[in-house]
Write a structure and sequence with these properties.
The protein is an all-alpha fold. It contains 9 helices and no strands. It has helices at residues 4-19, 26-33, 40-43, 47-69, 73-90, 98-105, 112-139, 144-168, 172-188. It comes from Mycolicibacterium chubuense (Mycobacterium chubuense). Residues 12-52 form the HTH tetR-type domain. GO terms for molecular function: DNA binding.
Length: 197
């Protein structure tokens, strides 16, 4: 059984991925999570900024765990695209990446004390994902430097495809990028590691 605090963090991440950071208020998180009124500042004395930071941390951990659990880098890639493909369909193309939402919306120059910690957490989340992808690629026999480059490219292409799919309300960009990445990464693998979908 999860605690009210944990439910609030998960709810914040889910709401941010669909509504964006600016449109996700603490009242929305309380309603979505079913947490008792008044619990927000008990669990998050740093207010909305702390809640956003912890939602980003949750998203970072969730995705890193999934990437780490994959049997191969191609399996990780397939699972990543399959998961978001389903999320887009189930959410009527509202479910994006909460880390991207926070990264692009948190830069309020008038409130650096609120925006800087959140942007730093988003940068750390992307770094964790890049490293998890690179580790998986290196484990599958891809040259270490090439794995680093491909990890950056993979993450950038995935996030861009997700934005395009949401904007067009069409899975085609996601499917095309998935196929191209799979081909590109597959070409870098030793022959014994290459598998078909």
């Amino acid at each position: 059984m999860t605690s009210p605090r944990e439910r609030m963090v998960v709810s914040a991440a889910l709401l941010i991925r669909e509504r964006g950071a600016h449109s996700t208020a603490i009242a929305d998180v309380l309603a979505h999570s079913g947490a008792p009124r008044g619990s927000a500042y008990h669990y998050f004395p740093g207010g909305r900024t702390q809640l956003l930071c912890e939602a980003v941390d949750y998203a970072a951990e969730y995705m890193t765990t999934k990437l780490d659990a994959s049997a191969s880098c191609l399996d990780a890639l397939d699972e990543l695209f399959r998961g978001y493909r389903q999320q887009l369909q189930h959410s009527d193309f509202r479910a994006g990446c909460p880390v991207v939402a926070v990264a692009v919306e948190a830069g309020d120059p008038d409130k650096p004390e609120q925006s800087e910690p959140v942007i730093a957490r988003a940068a750390a989340a992307f770094s964790r994902w890049r490293e998890a992808i690179a580790v998986r690629m290196r484990a599958d026999g891809i040259d270490p430097q090439r794995a680093e480059d491909l990890a950056v490219f993979t993450l950038s292409a995935f996030e861009g495809a997700l934005v395009l799919a949401r904007a067009a309300r069409d899975l085609d960009p996601l499917d095309r990028v998935h196929a191209q990445l799979r081909s590109l990464i597959g070409d870098q693998l030793p022959r014994r590691r290459r598998t078909s979908r």
